[in-house]
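step 4 of 6: structure.
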Amino acid sequence: MEQKDIIKLSQVDFTYPEAEQPAVKALNLTLQAGTWTALIGHNGSGKSTVSKLLDGLLFPTNPDSQIMIAGLPLTPETVWEVRKHVGIVFQNPDHQFVGATVADDVAFGLENRGISRAEMQRRIPAVLAQVGMADYADAEPSHLSGGQKQRVAIAGVLALKPQIMILDEATAMLDPEGRKMVIDIVRKMMVQDHLTIISITHDLDEANLADQVLVLDDGQLIATGTPAEVFQKAALLERSGLALPFFYQLKSELMAQGINIPTTITTETELVAYLCQLNLNM
Amino acid sequence: MTKIIIGRYIPGSALIYKFDARGKLLVTFLFVFAIFLANNWPTYLVATLYTGLAIMGTGLRAHVFWDGVKPMVLLILFTSALQLFFSTGGTVYFHWWGLWLTSTGIVNAIFIFLRFTLIILISTVMTVTTQPLAISDAMEWLLTPLKWVGVPVAQLALVMSIALRFVPTLFDETLKIMNAQKARGADFNSGGLIKRSKAIAPLIIPLFISSLEIAVDLATAMEARGYQGTSGRTRYRVLSWQKYDLLNAGAFVVLLILLKVLG
């Protein structure tokens, strides 16, 4: 896998108009192509602002800030070029569904790019098949579940063949089944199309699936690392208002009880297997 | 309650469904003028046959068309009654103060009744066999000449299709707010006119706010997906004339010729 830096932020500041506190402060960040990064933090920590900065929906308020996306500096002049490389799936499935039918919605982004009709007729069925919505091409959004609508939104992003896909709390309004399906599809696409995924979430179970976790608090990065590294810092996460995934909660409770869990154990299944072997008397 | 149908489209597979929406819209529009060519029994018979064939062509049950006419029944009967009692000429059957029942009056009343009913039936045929989205595309096509005088027809068409798309969403939103207010003791179904109008305010205001929120979210999503105005956009949904449309046009031309010859 090629390891090039696809996203580079240096000294990015952003303050909303009429806000006293900056939403993002001196943010430095480098992400590698083809990786999955989870950006976590409580409400108002600046997560969504970061996603909007990455797509040029907002611009840094400090002139010294620099954002490089796929080798392009992001400025108001290059924003439409940069957006060709970035796709976003937003939180509310209903508020981002533009088309009157599933196929029309996937077509919307393609129409905006001036893609020929013949090419659209090739791409739309292909991406709908990838997200498992091929049978619903003519369905209206009111007949779809939230998870199905989010899969359509993902198809709309994939149809544009971006290099980066941002999930801006895309699973927050879904039921567990819909959530799992969306995550599985994104993971498959990440490998298949060598996509870079940034998932903004407060679901730490979802963050646990990432290659890298970034914790944002008051617009600043307070921790980065693999999920295992970040979730060790239970105290820090609690201070920023986040609940640990069940696996890490259990692990730290067990440690507190004096049961030593080897660091090689990183999944729930391994932990179950390990606990079954132990002859505990509790 | 969560599903409402916009327009009155009823899915079907008859030939008339395959007619191009532009053709159907145009024929419906011209039919309103064509019906004025009818002025005697043979011409009205021809127009009635044409409408009857169109209705049979849809393959739908009769009550669908009755539903189309029903809201207009009073207006039709009232207009026909005016013709019936205020026309003079021909044999007088009955005369009382200013009211006349004459042979001309009876014939005119029947003609007016037919004219109204046929127009409504033909437009019902159009709306039940054409998807709202296709009607909106067809309207865009019909309005094309306005582009030359600077009317942003493409933007208007996009606005129309987004509006159609969001009707069910806003309807769900309304139900949600209504339930939330009912849970806090609001009463939408009793009291006089003033009390009821007052009860609407706590419904309208949150609905207004949430539609603005939806609009902001939607605008962000559209921008993120590369929307920069309608210039340079291609189209996925394209209406295309088919050989069936010759049948639609042909039938209408035959109608016009018969109306002209017999009239």
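step 5 of 6: annotate
 - The two ends of chain B are 50 Å apart (CA to CA).
 - The beta strands of chain B are 92-96, 99-102.
step 6 of 6: archive
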